[in-house]
Specification:
With about 325 residues, the protein is an alpha/beta fold. It contains eleven helices and eight strands. The protein has a single domain (about 10-110, about 125-160, about 200-240, about 260-320), classed as 3-Layer(aba) Sandwich (Rossmann fold), CATH 3.40.50.720. β2 (about 50-55), α3 (about 55-70) and β3 (about 75-80) form a beta-alpha-beta unit. The protein starts with 8 loop residues before the first helix and ends in a 6-residue tail after the last helix.
Length: about 325
């Protein structure tokens, strides 16, 4: 794919970010794409950035590259495999041991349209990676977020949030028994069971967000905001991974409309660093591409039944999340 010109990074940097010196920020999935860009820009703003990734050569190379791009950056690698609940717990324990407060948790990492298979914990790989593990990580780091003078939890959804309501079966230990992989024709048109599971996971990023917002407000907590963003259609390694697993085709005209990974990252960057951002704000392009403006969330993102299914399913998987 030809190099895509970034359109909006300079404007977001100059108009919608603040000095992050002294702030501790954790970002999941920083080896490439939107997570890498977000981590780089937060480091440029002065933040101490925790890079949460599975141990791999890609993670090591990304850390080296970030140090080259941002001389003097404060970067800290934390091994965290979102497909393993115990790994998430260990990562959170490591962060709690090293830091007394956390100012931003950006749940960026995600997978898309992967085959119908279970993780070692028994859950669908997409639901665990994209939805249940971020819920667990946020819960495990909640004491550090509460210790911040002004913390943010930022969740990353996508256009795939739009679609049918939640079904409880997707949140259960039913990995490998959630519809199969679909036909080549279904996958080519972003339909079928792979994409149904992906939709459920990206809707869950939203219902978790608005469920947490409601619980924060009910508890009278005034030092933690929760926000959401989406990247639109951005050219990242996510599409390559999905295509390699048989979930989509890269050669069609759809990806020709994509914006750069840098532009795709600007919604979460605003959510992490915009000084005027408020709890419940939703940042991203109006459609597939464009400037990451402030959006009006669709009603189903905060629908009470959708929120209930998401929270009940996540708590059944990893235990209660008491917001206090």
């Amino acid at each position: 794919m030809a190099q895509i010109q970034t359109q909006h990074l300079d404007a977001v940097r100059s108009q919608h970010t603040q000095d992050m010196t002294g702030k501790v920020v954790a970002v999941t999935g920083t080896t490439s794409g939107t997570g890498y860009v977000c981590a780089r820009e937060l480091a440029r703003l002065g933040a101490h950035v925790l890079l949460l990734n599975r141990a791999s050569d890609r993670a090591t190379a990304a850390l080296v590259r970030l140090r080259d791009e941002v001389p003097g950056a404060r970067l800290e690698a934390v091994e965290c495999d979102l497909q393993d609940f115990d790994s998430v717990r260990r990562a959170a324990a490591q962060i709690r041991a090293r830091h007394t407060a956390l100012d931003v948790l950006c749940n960026n990492a995600g997978v898309m349209a992967l085959p119908d298979r279970a993780t070692a914990d028994g859950y669908d790989v997409q639901l665990q990676t994209n939805s249940i593990s971020p819920f667990l990580l946020t819960r495990e780091l909640w004491p550090l977020l509460r210790a911040s003078a002004g913390a943010r939890v930022v969740n990353h959804t996508s256009m795939a949030r739009l679609g049918p309501p939640h079904e409880a079966r997707y949140f259960g230990p039913n990995g490998g028994d959630l519809g199969g992989d679909g036909t080549a024709e279904q996958n080519a048109s972003f339909q079928g069971p792979r994409w149904a599971r992906y939709h459920q996971s990206k809707l869950a990023n939203c219902t978790f967000t608005f469920g947490l917002k409601a619980r924060i407000e009910a508890a009278g907590i005034d030092n933690v905001k929760v926000l959401i963003a989406h990247p639109g259609l951005a050219a990242t390694n996510l599409q390559v991974t999905t295509a390699d697993a048989g979930g989509m085709q890269l050669g069609g005209g759809f990806m020709a409309r994509a914006q750069s990974a840098e532009d795709g990252a600007l919604g979460i960057l605003r959510a992490c660093a915009d000084p005027l951002a408020e709890s419940g704000d939703f940042f991203g392009p109006e459609g597939w591409t464009g400037f990451p403006g402030k959006l009006t969330p669709e009603p189903e993102l905060s629908d009470a039944e959708n929120v209930r299914i998401c929270w009940q399913g996540c708590e059944a998987a990893v235990g209660p999340f008491v917001v206090a």
